[in-house]
Specification:
By secondary structure, the chain is of the alpha+beta class. The protein contains 16 helices and 15 strands. Helix 6 (131-142) packs across helix 9 (190-200) and helix 11 packs across helix 16 (442-459).
């Protein structure tokens, strides 16, 4: 202790010295990134803060969640810099800015995924490929989501298997059988489409490439499909008038009455469930955030959008076992179950299409995507240095788009109607990303959500099993926090088909 100083004075001096040291370190950290700008460009770096040495703003991001980005967007604008998870990041919002990012794939930017993604899914996947290899694989896999393929999927949305090694073993047997069959042109499932599409494009996939491509499709959106399904159920519950409009549209296309003419016993491929005791409602914590199941690896597709996968099964208490709907048909009347709904019939449901689009606009399952700058380029008057990460925001772009006539924060399916100009344009509405890496399975994803909506409004009414709506977390995907979205489902009776 310096002579003449008391203990309180010495402690205060030490704290002052520590504060000055911390301030100096932070200043040097900010200076380090300021000097990293590309001096060949006269443009400045985006506004923003690089946070604390080494940690950057990662702790703020983890603690504040979605508020972290919105608060900095309000402070710095649609393009700002930050430092997250050990990397300099430029956060981008706005249709024109995102248009440049998404259309600049392979030239300005390249996709960026965590190393864990490649470890889990393998190296022979669409999301991990770049350049000509990405284009070739995308053409091959496009057949999996052709109209003919989608028609074959509608009656049977199959479930995935958890264990990758066991699944690889099963896949190898299935692939061997398909390669040895007499009529290789038959298309009975997605694996057939992959094999034959590869041959048509002059590419013979190896066994490992076939297995990893199949695994990628199965795991593509376990989380995002569960997220989108939960958002659909939640938003319909909050807006009963939308449910009634959907029912009216189904009636006008003679689809609603069909669902009331199923014979006794469960219908195949049904998406709802009811209690065996018809006097008791069904308690279903719907899609209580599939990401909590740590046995399921997160395997995003091109943009992490909703993709083909089994819808999440309700978790039921022991006292409420589920069976399929048991609506009896009058004698002489045939059953028209969900498998009778074709893509052509779905395409005629224009209002339902608007509802699905609005659900994905208000609560996009994934908030954005990451890219790495391949070279320094200009964006909104700033330079984006080569090697920096670029994160474009889907959610913020949806919330701030000036094109919408009604408030962007509201739920308004009619904004996508033919009479509104809001449906015109590309990059103010991007739940499936865009450009070369737009979601390859978006048509099937929308079909799955439409089938779920039809099943729900045709066979059940539902209500909250909790005092209030759950809060929604947006990181890493949109999901209800705490105990999830818990609901009571009540089966509709044929004579009460118009119930809300």
């Amino acid at each position: 202790m310096p002579a003449g100083l008391s203990w309180p004075e010495a402690a205060a001096l030490a704290l002052l010295a520590l504060a000055l040291l911390v301030a100096l370190c932070r200043h040097l950290w900010a200076l380090r990134w300021s000097l990293s700008r590309d001096r060949a460009s006269a443009l400045p770096l985006p506004k923003g803060s690089m946070g604390w040495p080494f940690f950057g703003e990662t702790l703020h991001w983890l603690l504040q969640g979605s508020r972290f980005h919105s608060s900095r967007r309000e402070r710095y604008g649609n393009v700002f810099k930050t430092h997250l998870l050990g990397r300099p990041v430029v956060r981008v919002t706005g249709a024109e800015n995102i248009r440049k990012i998404l259309l600049g794939e392979h030239t300005l930017v390249s996709t960026q995924w965590p190393q864990s993604t490649q470890i889990i899914l393998g190296s022979h996947t669409l999301l991990g490929s770049v350049g000509d290899l990405h284009r070739q694989r995308r053409k091959i896999l496009a057949r999996v989501f052709s109209r003919a393929a989608l028609e074959s999927y509608l009656p049977r949305i199959q479930k995935g298997i958890k264990a990758r090694d066991m699944l690889h073993e099963f896949m190898e047997k299935a692939i061997q059988e398909k390669l040895q069959r007499n009529n290789p042109e038959d298309h009975s499932d997605a694996l057939d489409f992959i094999i034959n599409s590869a041959k048509e494009h002059g590419k013979e996939f190896t066994m490992q490439e076939l297995k990893e491509s199949a695994i990628e499709l199965i795991f593509a959106a376990f989380f995002t499909t569960a997220s989108a399904s939960t958002s659909l159920i939640l938003l319909l519950l909050k807006h009963p008038t939308v449910i009634e409009k959907i029912r009216q549209e189904l009636m006008s296309h003679e689809l609603y009455q069909q669902r009331e003419r199923c014979p006794a016993g469960p219908c195949p491929d049904t998406l709802t469930a009811q209690s065996r005791d018809s006097e008791k409602p069904l308690l279903c914590p719907t899609a209580k955030d599939a990401h909590e199941d740590q046995s399921q690896p997160l395997g995003p597709t091109e943009e992490g959008s909703p993709q083909p996968h089994a819808l999440p099964e309700p978790t039921l208490p022991p006292s409420s076992p589920c069976t399929g709907p048991q609506l009896r048909a009058p004698s002489g009347q045939s059953c028209c179950c969900p498998s009778d709904i074709s893509l052509e019939k779905l395409s005629r449901l224009h209002y339902l299409d608007c509802v699905i689009k609005e659900v994905l606009r208000v609560l996009p399952p994934v908030s954005g995507g990451y890219r790495t700058a391949l070279r320094t380029f200009e964006l909104d008057g700033y330079q984006i240095p080569k090697g920096w990460s670029v994160m474009y925001s889907i959610r913020d772009t949806h919330e701030t788009a000036a094109i919408y006539q009604s408030p962007p924060t509201g739920f308004d399916p009619d904004r996508f109607g033919a009479a509104r100009t809001e449906a015109v344009g590309r990059f103010h509405y991007i739940p499936f990303g865009g450009g070369a890496r737009s979601c390859i399975g978006k048509e099937l994803a929308q079909a799955i959500l439409k089938l779920l909506a039809i099943e729900l409004v045709s066979t059940a009414r539902w209500e909250l099993a909790t005092p209030g709506y759950p809060a929604m977390q947006t990181v890493p995907i949109v999901h209800p926090v705490d105990d999830g979205l818990q609901l009571y489902f009540h089966p509709l009776q044929p004579s009460r088909g118009s119930e809300a």
